[in-house]
Design a protein that fits this description.
single chain; about 500 residues; alpha+beta; Butyryl-CoA Dehydrogenase, subunit A, domain 2; Butyryl-CoA Dehydrogenase, subunit A, domain 3; 2 domains; six-stranded mixed sheet; four-stranded mixed sheet; about 15% strand; globular
């Protein structure tokens, strides 16, 4: 098929998939008042590929399968990683600081699968790598949107998957047939699943031999029998009823997550990429994370830039731009944003070629960037809230600015430094959406938990840091000191 249009993408979602939102069945996700907003948001990727402004960045025009979405370019050089990061950043900016993710996360998973499947085949004599390559080409050549289900619902987290009271608290192989496997269980936090074409399932953790039935990876279409998507109802106020005046971002940009339920779902063997090779469950989970955290830090860049812009604008409109405390907060926000950008780019530049010839970004710097973003996020929100003022939560609704009888008061009494009241209040609406709304609460939780927790990132920083040069250096200093002492 090649590159798809927005219309072709939306038409592909009318496939009879089983979706529920707030207890109600959703017959057509493209027409739903909330999920439809997420569909339009996801279509940004397809619009950019057809836009002369973005096409050179969005589309690969040479090589096997060309033209195709750059997300499907398997990175082989630091420049490939930098272009991928730039595309993710540009798409997120088009999305009003909200990541699109319908190809980013899926291709992260494909990179991890291509790398690890080769190693599984070498040890176990399987043919997973050829299956993954065939699936990759199908997704690339048909310009498909892909969701990834990795995080299991987990139950009692002190217990292994096979030790849970209910065996379906991790996705598992419930049966094996001559033509494939049958899987049961549930995954949580599955992003963009309501409006993707395919779903890749990955193990969430390292496994023991007793957990072999839980060491499973596969891909299925979203309308596969037995697959149920239970859409999250959080952060839907603006999408359901909000005005774009009050919610300039979240009224038109939305990403859906689901609890993803597998009830005796059949998967044919050509779509199975791991089936009991428990010793590779951990490496596959880690390989995916190595790529996906780079996606994460790339899509955070427009959000931190927006914080800097909001702080500058609010300080100017409130007449405090020259105040020492305002300059200090803005300086901290600039340092926050640019440190994240510098670490993101450096992670690409220090990338290394891994299995299957795929370049992975430098693990140390990816995790440093992700930890830096998450650890300082709430402080950044506080700085913007402080500079904006209490009108963030006591200001008018959209109707107050549209009805002349009330609008005149807001125009008069909310005037700022060189701006009228309406202009200042409209600017405050953007700030409110970013730091004082249901959407902002959603972003705050994502900052802590999405793509790995703070503790996971700290573990990876310590694990990937090569301590030998630092130890050798201090030993050399100590030896030099001892030599001086012995001659004095």
């Amino acid at each position: 098929m090649g590159l798809r249009s927005v219309e072709q993408y939306k038409a592909s979602l009318k496939d009879g998939r089983r979706v529920f939102f707030r207890g109600q069945s959703v017959p057509d996700v493209t027409e739903h008042p909330v999920i439809g907003v997420a569909v339009n948001h996801a279509a940004i990727d397809y619009r950019m590929a057809d836009d002369p402004v973005h096409r050179a960045l969005s589309v690969v025009t040479q090589g096997e399968g060309a033209p195709y979405s750059r997300y499907y370019q398997l990175p082989a050089t630091p420049d490939d990683l930098l272009k991928r990061s730039a595309l993710i950043e540009a798409a997120t900016a088009e999305g009003g600081t909200l990541v699109v993710l319908i190809k980013e996360i899926g291709t992260d998973a494909l990179c991890g699968l291509l790398r690890v499947s080769e190693s599984i085949d070498k040890k176990h004599g399987t043919t997973y790598h050829d299956r993954v390559k065939a699936f990759y080409r199908q997704c690339r050549d048909n310009d498909l949107a892909i969701a990834v289900a990795q995080t299991d619902v987990k139950g009692d987290r002190s217990l292994a998957p096979s030790a849970q009271a209910d065996p379906d608290l991790y996705v598992r192989i419930a049966g094996r047939r001559a033509d494939g496997i049958v899987v049961s269980g549930a995954k949580a936090h599955t992003s963009v699943s309501t409006n993707a074409n395919e779903l890749i399932v990955l193990p969430t953790r390292a496994m023991a031999e007793s957990d072999r039935d839980y060491a499973v990876s596969f891909a299925i279409p979203m309308n596969t029998p037995g697959l149920t998507l239970l859409a999250s109802a959080f952060d839907t106020t603006a999408a359901r009823q909000g005005s774009s005046i009050e919610y300039p971002i979240s009224a038109t940009h939305k990403m859906m997550e689901t609890t993803t339920v597998f009830e005796d779902v059949f998967v044919p063997w050509d779509r199975v990429f791991m089936a009991g090779e428990w010793d590779f469950a951990g490496p596959l989970a880690l390989a995916f994370v190595e790529h996906h955290r780079f996606t994460a830090i790339s899509y955070k860049l427009p959000l931190v830039d927006a914080f800097v812009g909001c702080a500058l604008q609010m300080a100017q409109m409130n007449g405090i731009a020259k105040a020492g405390h305002a300059r200090d907060k803005i300086t901290q926000l600039v340092g926050y944003a640019e440190t994240l950008r510098g670490l993101t780019h450096y992670a690409a530049m220090r990338g290394t070629v891994r299995e299957a010839g795929i370049m992975a970004p430098a693990t140390l710097y990816v995790n440093m960037a992700k930890y830096h973003f998450a650890h300082h996020y709430h402080e950044a929100v506080r700085h913007v809230q402080d500079l904006a003022g209490g009108a963030l939560v006591t200001g008018p609704g959209a109707e107050d600015l549209e009805v002349p009888e009330t609008a005149k008061y807001y125009e008069k009494y909310y005037a700022g430094a060189g701006v009228g009241g309406r202009e200042r209040l409209m600017a405050l609406s953007t700030v409110r959406n970013l730091v004082a709304s249901e959407f902002s609460a959603y972003q705050e939780v994502l900052a802590v938990h999405a793509e790995g927790s703070l503790e996971a990132e700290k573990q990876m920083i310590l694990r990937s840091y090569d301590a030998r040069p630092a130890l050798a250096f201090v030993k050399k200093l100590a030896a030099a000191g001892a030599a001086v002492s012995s001659t004095s």
